[in-house]
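Q: What would this complex look like in 3D?
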Amino acid sequence: MMRNDPIKHVFIWPAVLVVLAISIFPLIYSFTTSFLSYRLIPPIPPRVVWLGNYASLLQEPRFWNAIFTTTLIAFIAVGLQYVIGFGVALALNARVPGERLFRVALLLPMLLAPVAVALVARMIFNPTMGPLNQFLSEFGLVNLPFLTNGHWALACIIAVEVWQWTPFIILMMLAGLQTLPEDVYEAAELENASAWQQFWGITFPMLLPISAAVVFIRLIESYKIMDTVFVMTGGGPGVETETLTLFAYQEGFKKFNLGYTSALSFLFLIAITIIGVTYLALLRPHLEKRR
Amino acid sequence: MSGQGLTGLSPWSRRLVTAGVLAWCLITVFPLYWVVVTAFKTPPGVVGGPTYLPFIDFTPTLQPFIDLYQGIRGEFFRTFLNSTIVGLSAAAIATAIGAMAAYALVRFEFKVRFGAGLIFFLLALGGYLLFNTSLGFTRPQALLLAFPVALVVAVVANRLPLPGPVLGNEDILFWFVSQRMFPPIVTAFALYLLYSEIGRLGFQLIDSYIGLTLCYVAFSLPIVVWLMRDFFEAVPIEVEEAAMVDNVPTWRIFFGIVVPMSMNGLLATFMITLAFVWNEFLFALFLTNSRWQTLPILVAGQNSQRGDEWWAISAAALVAIVPMMIMAGLLSRMMRSGLLLGAIK
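A: Here is my prediction, written as structure tokens for the whole assembly.
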């Protein structure tokens, strides 16, 4: 039932106003700034360059490197999170012994500050005094350059992302698993379907909508990654682990290149939108087939 | 429910599954154990290589925490207070106004004409450009002038029979939630510019309580509206209808019946928002510099200051982590099945 009462405006306007003021407002501001050549240090008065900032960004290798790095981190990390998270959720749902204890422990990482997690990771990945080095020394792998070699550093960042955000997938998939109707499985049991067949025939397709939503959320969130990289490598070595947000931060907050950074953030927004729309377009046929 | 999943497997694969979950659990817990243990180490306990067991491998000490409290490396105590104050107030305000908006979206019908939205955007953008370039206002002045004008015109225009689609509640909800999709750097940076220009007009927003809290409220609202909508939808409408028959005003129905009935949901939403604000890094990095610095900024700074003093780093990280650990315990009690499920539909 939908009521109609003028008081509804009192209910909704505070939220609308705050969001309008704090997100649309600056958006317009930075949108117009992105067409200016505007620096604070050294101070140059703003000058209209139209698409000049966008053009120079698109020719900047560092920008493409940041896009590539961010995409790599996001896709690999979310892929691993999904596989591990779904697996653990399945096991927990099937009443693994001690499952209640696991639930609290498994929930923890996603509530912790990424900055603090990255600090802990730095200690664990320390090539001489860290526990991981000690562990790998047993296998003859001594003093690996965890955070000082580009490829290793990327792998470490991805590992931290997986550690921190797999719990989110576990939580969501577990909630999804608990909504599945039992009778379908009983029918499958009568048909003598193996556990493997049951998974691919029933569980996976029925959880596809939730999976799609969860992966989408994680993917979009992963593209924003900044704190973890900021603390673990600072984008280094060189710019090998520099993500888009970190690149924007360097340009905007270290060099105070305002027009350029605004343009960069809008390109970022466009990229995110493209990824989101493509993802949904790719998935739509699979989601609708089931109905 | 596929509760029979494990029994359908052979004993060997059952053991394999249990071992896998156990392994993941160890991976999850080890870093936490490590940081707790390291925070109680003395310098020799760190430099000599990794040690794990207190009293056996090394002698624990409280010195790192005493150093923290005395503010030897940054004013931890005040920063902790800052984080607490900003976190609690932002989460409370966001939950309150977000819940109200969510309730309105569940129970009342809204119609927004697409044309009116377009008018708002074009007027805000055009008015800003006009005020700024032709009439010689400064940029924040131009924005502050253009915004209410555009808003008023758009609200009036919404009553006119404009051509184009009419957007309903679902679209308004989508608009709220889509705010969460934006890369925060877009707004963080623009907000920084805007705040600093407003600061030049004499109203300090950068590194202020109001500026930071306002920004956190705005960025928590999408989650709050999204989560609370599901909790309110679960409230049986018959109760409200009965109250309406008795002519109870809507605001009393909301505060007297609906809010108490969805207390669990409100609490969970409040805690999730609090965790989000407590851990937030990017906005705090842009919008604070000394007085209202929050914990994540201070913790991130520990690293570059003195990289090898692990006992201090661990203690710092622990201060940022422990409140959320306690919350995780509380939350997991509330996380009965389905509590979060509605949120992902």
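A: To summarize the key features: Chain B touches chain A through 114 residues (CB under 8 Å). Strands of chain B lie at 112-113, 166-167.
Q: Very helpful, thank you.
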